[in-house]
Structure formats: C-alpha cells, structure tokens
Amino acid sequence: MKKQIYSQYVIAFEQKNDILDQLNSIKEKMKDFFPPDAYLTFGVPSNFPVPPEMPRIAVSSKNNHSNLQISLNQIQLTTKFDENFQTDFSKCYEYLKNRIIVVNEITKTISEGRMFFNGIVSQFVDDKVSDVKKDIISCLYKNELLDENIFDILSKLTYIKDSTYYVNVTVNNIRDNNLIEALGVQLDINSRYNFNYNKEKKYIDEQVLNKLQDLYENIVINHFTEIIKGKFDI
Fold this sequence. Notes:
By secondary structure, the protein is of the alpha+beta class. It is 28% helix and 30% strand. A 9-stranded antiparallel beta sheet has the order 2-3-4-5-1-6-9-8-7. Strand 8 (165-175) and strand 9 form a beta hairpin. The longest helix has 23 residues, at 89-111.
C-alpha cells in the first residue's frame, strides 16, 4: 500500500536581518496551525559568525505533526503524516496546501516580494511491492541486471518543466529493522531551475510561486505511478 510519510516545503528569499521583528505578525497569520505561545526564538550576537540559514524562529504544531522554521533567508515547513492521512494523498495535499498558502503570504510580506525559489519534497513508501529491486530494474534498467546479486538499488530521474521547475524523482529499495523491503519514492519539485538559469529575472513572481502547488498536485494525484517508471508526459 502506498503511503505518504512526510513532506517539506521550502521558500527562499533575500536575506532579512530583522526577521525577529516579524514574530508577532507570523504568530497571527499562523494561529490556525501553530499555538502562538509555542514559538522559540534564537538570538545571535551581531559579532558572532552564524550562517543565515540557521533558524531564528521555530514552532511545532499541537500534536507535533508539523514544524515551522524561519531563518534570515528561508522558511521551512515540515510535516510527518500519521495513519489517518498516509494513504490518502488528496488529504495530505489539502493539509499541506492550507499551510503553504499562509507561508507564501508571510514570505511575500517579509521579503517584500524578493523571493528566489520554492520547492516541495515528499517521501512515499509502498510496502506491497513483492520484489522491490526487480520492480525498479524492470522499469528503469536493462533486464540483464535481474541476474545480478544486487543488494541495494537507487535511481534518480530529473525532468525540467516549463523551463522553470526541476522535477526530481528518486526511487530505491528501503528496509525496516527486520530487513523487510519496501519501495521508496522521493518526489522533489522546485523552481530552482528558474533561479539557476533565468538571469533576466532574479525573483519569482506569483505565477511561478503558485504553479508549483498545481504541478505537485497533478503529479501526485494523477501521474504518480507513471513518473516513477520513467514516463514524464505532463
């Protein structure tokens, strides 16, 4: 049965050294998802060399399913799904989407629209594949490999969509503590391609920001099986 284990949304923006000044506004906008009194802040002396990526603000949801971390140049939302969500990809997406919308609003305010890229990474597991390595080899490799004594296998496929987004699909065999195998699939969709190669446009606009969610939803809900088999026609 296919399960969605976790998802992470990241949005990067131009560095804002006064990020802690936005704390009350962030609490207000995220109050439906994170308890206002649960926030932690991390002050850093101005003369102490700390990477801007280090979180300055962090908070966990009431039941610890979601975690929000905010640094000087990015916001990261991480969610671990429980058994009430894992097998319903549409339900997982709705949960994510509602929070991503608010994260995007916060980011646009903080950065004054100076956003570099955004991305969603999700991990899926299918524990009902009878022979995981054979399944991966049959889809992505020459069948001669089936005769080899392969213990682990991992394959990463990267596609480009609309000259803007990377669509990264990593397929591998994973094991639990009893060495029982399952099929692992990591889907990573992000707008870094635009950031890396579109030199005429330094920041992403509203269309690029929002279309990421539409692309992610379309792949997960409608094209999940075919894309992990190396077929990308979206």
